[in-house]
Write a structure and sequence with these properties.
With 166 residues, the chain is α+β, with helices and mostly antiparallel strands. The protein has one domain: 2-Layer Sandwich (Alpha-Beta Plaits), CATH 3.30.70. Helices cover 33% and strands 19% of the residues. The protein is built from seven helices and six strands. It has a four-stranded antiparallel sheet, sandwiched between helices. β4 and β5 form a beta hairpin. Bound molecules: cytidine-5'-diphosphate and magnesium ion. Cytidine-5'-diphosphate binds next to loops. The site of cytidine-5'-diphosphate has 9 residues, from loops.
Length: 166
Protein backbone atom coordinates (compact mmCIF):
# COMPACT_ATOMS: atom_id res chain seq x y z
CA UNK A 1 0.00 0.00 0.00
CA UNK A 2 1.31 3.39 -0.98
CA UNK A 3 0.06 6.93 -0.57
CA UNK A 4 -0.86 8.20 -4.00
CA UNK A 5 -2.60 11.14 -5.57
CA UNK A 6 -5.36 11.10 -8.17
CA UNK A 7 -6.92 13.85 -10.26
CA UNK A 8 -10.69 13.56 -10.64
CA UNK A 9 -12.57 15.80 -13.04
CA UNK A 10 -16.33 16.08 -13.00
CA UNK A 11 -16.72 16.70 -16.70
CA UNK A 12 -19.19 19.21 -18.19
CA UNK A 13 -21.90 16.53 -18.66
CA UNK A 14 -21.55 15.57 -14.99
CA UNK A 15 -22.08 19.20 -13.96
CA UNK A 16 -25.04 19.73 -16.31
CA UNK A 17 -26.65 16.55 -15.00
CA UNK A 18 -26.21 17.81 -11.40
CA UNK A 19 -24.13 14.80 -10.45
CA UNK A 20 -21.51 16.59 -8.34
CA UNK A 21 -23.00 15.54 -4.99
CA UNK A 22 -23.59 11.94 -6.06
CA UNK A 23 -20.07 11.57 -7.41
CA UNK A 24 -18.35 13.09 -4.37
CA UNK A 25 -20.51 10.97 -2.02
CA UNK A 26 -19.70 7.81 -3.94
CA UNK A 27 -15.97 8.64 -3.92
CA UNK A 28 -16.06 9.32 -0.17
CA UNK A 29 -16.50 5.56 0.32
CA UNK A 30 -12.78 5.28 -0.47
CA UNK A 31 -11.96 7.36 2.63
CA UNK A 32 -9.41 9.24 0.57
CA UNK A 33 -8.81 12.92 1.34
CA UNK A 34 -9.62 15.83 -0.96
CA UNK A 35 -6.52 18.06 -0.97
CA UNK A 36 -7.66 20.51 -3.67
CA UNK A 37 -10.81 21.52 -5.52
CA UNK A 38 -11.78 24.18 -8.03
CA UNK A 39 -14.07 25.03 -10.93
CA UNK A 40 -12.12 25.47 -14.15
CA UNK A 41 -12.99 26.95 -17.53
CA UNK A 42 -10.97 24.64 -19.71
CA UNK A 43 -8.89 26.31 -22.41
CA UNK A 44 -7.99 24.48 -25.62
CA UNK A 45 -4.37 24.51 -24.49
CA UNK A 46 -5.19 22.77 -21.19
CA UNK A 47 -7.53 20.29 -22.87
CA UNK A 48 -4.98 19.31 -25.52
CA UNK A 49 -2.19 18.96 -22.97
CA UNK A 50 -4.38 16.88 -20.64
CA UNK A 51 -5.35 14.48 -23.44
CA UNK A 52 -2.01 14.61 -25.32
CA UNK A 53 -1.76 10.79 -25.37
CA UNK A 54 -4.90 10.65 -27.52
CA UNK A 55 -3.78 13.23 -30.11
CA UNK A 56 -3.75 10.68 -32.95
CA UNK A 57 -7.23 9.31 -32.22
CA UNK A 58 -10.05 10.08 -34.63
CA UNK A 59 -12.27 11.21 -31.76
CA UNK A 60 -9.66 13.70 -30.46
CA UNK A 61 -11.31 16.88 -31.78
CA UNK A 62 -14.71 15.89 -30.41
CA UNK A 63 -13.08 14.95 -27.09
CA UNK A 64 -11.44 18.38 -26.82
CA UNK A 65 -14.77 20.10 -27.57
CA UNK A 66 -16.45 17.87 -24.98
CA UNK A 67 -14.00 18.59 -22.15
CA UNK A 68 -14.04 22.32 -23.04
CA UNK A 69 -17.79 22.19 -22.47
CA UNK A 70 -19.05 23.00 -25.94
CA UNK A 71 -21.88 20.49 -25.62
CA UNK A 72 -22.89 21.15 -22.00
CA UNK A 73 -21.43 23.96 -19.89
CA UNK A 74 -18.00 25.55 -20.03
CA UNK A 75 -16.99 24.29 -16.60
CA UNK A 76 -15.23 21.34 -15.06
CA UNK A 77 -14.82 20.57 -11.35
CA UNK A 78 -11.24 19.51 -10.63
CA UNK A 79 -10.60 17.51 -7.45
CA UNK A 80 -7.27 16.33 -6.07
CA UNK A 81 -7.49 13.16 -3.98
CA UNK A 82 -4.81 11.67 -1.79
CA UNK A 83 -4.45 8.41 0.13
CA UNK A 84 -3.48 4.76 -0.05
CA UNK A 85 -3.91 3.23 -3.49
CA UNK A 86 -5.85 6.30 -4.59
CA UNK A 87 -5.78 5.63 -8.33
CA UNK A 88 -7.00 2.01 -8.15
CA UNK A 89 -9.69 2.78 -5.58
CA UNK A 90 -11.04 5.70 -7.57
CA UNK A 91 -10.85 4.00 -10.97
CA UNK A 92 -12.84 1.06 -9.60
CA UNK A 93 -15.71 3.30 -8.49
CA UNK A 94 -15.50 5.37 -11.69
CA UNK A 95 -15.79 2.31 -13.96
CA UNK A 96 -14.60 1.45 -17.48
CA UNK A 97 -13.97 4.11 -20.13
CA UNK A 98 -16.87 2.98 -22.32
CA UNK A 99 -20.03 3.57 -20.26
CA UNK A 100 -21.81 0.77 -22.11
CA UNK A 101 -19.22 -1.70 -20.86
CA UNK A 102 -18.76 -0.19 -17.40
CA UNK A 103 -20.16 -1.99 -14.34
CA UNK A 104 -23.80 -0.85 -14.03
CA UNK A 105 -23.24 0.40 -10.48
CA UNK A 106 -20.07 2.35 -11.34
CA UNK A 107 -20.37 6.11 -11.89
CA UNK A 108 -19.82 5.80 -15.64
CA UNK A 109 -22.11 2.75 -15.86
CA UNK A 110 -24.89 4.63 -14.12
CA UNK A 111 -24.62 8.03 -15.72
CA UNK A 112 -22.49 7.85 -18.88
CA UNK A 113 -23.62 7.57 -22.49
CA UNK A 114 -22.15 7.08 -25.93
CA UNK A 115 -23.15 9.97 -28.19
CA UNK A 116 -24.26 9.65 -31.80
CA UNK A 117 -20.97 11.39 -32.66
CA UNK A 118 -19.22 8.43 -31.08
CA UNK A 119 -17.77 10.13 -27.99
CA UNK A 120 -17.96 8.47 -24.59
CA UNK A 121 -19.61 11.10 -22.40
CA UNK A 122 -18.61 9.34 -19.23
CA UNK A 123 -19.14 12.06 -16.64
CA UNK A 124 -15.80 11.80 -14.83
CA UNK A 125 -12.08 11.64 -15.44
CA UNK A 126 -9.70 9.84 -13.08
CA UNK A 127 -5.92 9.53 -13.38
CA UNK A 128 -4.80 6.09 -14.56
CA UNK A 129 -1.60 5.77 -12.50
CA UNK A 130 0.40 7.68 -9.88
CA UNK A 131 2.74 8.89 -12.64
CA UNK A 132 -0.15 10.22 -14.70
CA UNK A 133 -1.69 11.70 -11.55
CA UNK A 134 1.47 13.73 -10.93
CA UNK A 135 1.57 14.99 -14.50
CA UNK A 136 -2.12 15.89 -14.46
CA UNK A 137 -2.19 17.49 -11.01
CA UNK A 138 0.75 19.72 -11.92
CA UNK A 139 -1.14 20.73 -15.04
CA UNK A 140 -4.45 21.53 -13.30
CA UNK A 141 -3.29 22.97 -9.95
CA UNK A 142 -0.67 25.43 -8.77
CA UNK A 143 1.21 24.33 -5.63
CA UNK A 144 -0.62 26.88 -3.44
CA UNK A 145 -3.99 25.46 -4.52
CA UNK A 146 -3.32 22.15 -2.77
CA UNK A 147 -3.42 21.92 1.01
CA UNK A 148 -0.17 20.10 1.41
CA UNK A 149 2.80 20.26 -0.85
CA UNK A 150 2.54 16.86 -2.45
CA UNK A 151 5.26 17.38 -5.01
CA UNK A 152 8.57 19.24 -4.63
CA UNK A 153 8.28 22.99 -5.16
CA UNK A 154 10.63 25.92 -5.70
CA UNK A 155 10.30 29.61 -4.88
CA UNK A 156 10.86 32.00 -7.76
CA UNK A 157 10.71 35.78 -7.90
CA UNK A 158 8.80 36.87 -10.99
CA UNK A 159 7.27 40.02 -12.41
CA UNK A 160 3.88 39.07 -13.76
CA UNK A 161 0.53 40.51 -14.76
CA UNK A 162 -2.24 39.32 -12.48
CA UNK A 163 -5.98 39.81 -12.35
CA UNK A 164 -7.38 41.69 -9.33
CA UNK A 165 -10.91 42.69 -8.32
CA UNK A 166 -11.68 46.37 -9.07
O1 LIG B 1 -10.78 8.31 -19.22
P1 LIG B 1 -10.05 6.99 -19.33
O2 LIG B 1 -8.68 7.02 -18.69
O3 LIG B 1 -10.89 5.84 -18.82
O4 LIG B 1 -9.85 6.69 -20.89
P2 LIG B 1 -8.80 7.30 -21.94
O5 LIG B 1 -8.45 6.19 -22.89
O6 LIG B 1 -7.70 8.02 -21.24
O7 LIG B 1 -9.69 8.33 -22.77
C1 LIG B 1 -9.96 9.62 -22.30
C2 LIG B 1 -11.40 9.99 -22.64
O8 LIG B 1 -11.58 9.99 -24.04
C3 LIG B 1 -12.44 8.99 -22.12
O9 LIG B 1 -12.76 9.17 -20.75
C4 LIG B 1 -13.61 9.30 -23.04
O10 LIG B 1 -14.34 10.44 -22.63
C5 LIG B 1 -12.90 9.60 -24.36
N1 LIG B 1 -12.86 8.42 -25.26
C6 LIG B 1 -13.80 8.32 -26.28
O11 LIG B 1 -14.66 9.17 -26.39
N2 LIG B 1 -13.76 7.23 -27.13
C7 LIG B 1 -12.84 6.27 -26.98
N3 LIG B 1 -12.83 5.22 -27.83
C8 LIG B 1 -11.88 6.36 -25.95
C9 LIG B 1 -11.92 7.45 -25.10
MG1 LIG C 1 -7.03 8.17 -19.29
Amino acid sequence: MKVEQCLVLIKPDGLVKSLTGDIISKLSETQLVIVGAKIVQVTRELAEEHYQHLREEKFFDELIRYIMGEFHTKRVLALAYQGEDATAKIRKIVGATNPELAEPISIRGKYGRVTTRGVFENVVHASESPKEAERELKLWFRPDELVNTIFPTQLKKVAIEKLFWK
